[in-house]
Amino acid sequence: MKYQVEKIKMKEVVGGFTERDVNSKALLNTDVDSLLKYKIQKRKMSNNTEIEKMRDEVATLKNEMCEIKELLLILVKSK
Question: pTM for this structure?
């Protein structure tokens, strides 16, 4: 059984909320453009976080390779 939301338009728009649920009196944000902008911004932030993680991993790998190289040079010089 689905709950049917009965909506009424608000006289004054408050922070993007344009309608109210008649039964629960909840404010409803029906601004689809704002939702789309939010989702795009969230996806960009997620991508930036992934890029930062990859940069950190590459930097770690570079450092480890330098350490391996130094150890190999020490090993070769000692023989």
Answer: 0.49
